[in-house]
Amino acid sequence: MLTMVKSLFLLHILFILLTLPVLYLGRFSSFLPFCYALVLFLTGLHRNRALDIPPLTILAAGYLSQLPGIIPGIFILTKGLWPFGLEVFEFVAQIWQTPLYPLYPFLPRTSYHDLPLYFLVTITASFIIPLIPALGAWLSQLVKKVC
Question: Is 76 helix (H, G, I), strand (E, B) or coil?
C-alpha cells in the first residue's frame, strides 16, 4: 500500500510540475487535468489488474497521497473554529491543486458564502481525486468477475 501511496503522490507532484510549462499553451492547457484524471484512472485499473490490489486499498492510498490537500481543506472548511488566520492553509491548498488550474478560467465567476467557485473546487478536489483510481480498480475488478 505504501508503494501505491508513493506512486500516486509522485504522480501528483509530476502533474504540478507539468502544469507550469503547459500553461503557456493557452486554451490547450485545459487538456492537462483530463490527462491527469485519465492517468489516475489507468493507474487504478492497472494496479488492480496486474497486482490484484483491491479498490478499497487503492482508495485508502489515494486519500493518504492527497493529505497535503485534505488537511488544509479541513482547516479552511472549518475556519470559524480556529483562532488564527488560515492564509497559509489557503496557499497550500491552492499550490497542491495546481494540476486543476487550467480549468479555472472555464468556471463561472460565482461565489458561495464569499468563497469563489474556483476556490471551492480547489478545496474539495483533494477529497474527490482519490475516487478516480479507485473507480479504475473497481471497474477492473468488475470486468474480472464478468469474464
Answer: helix
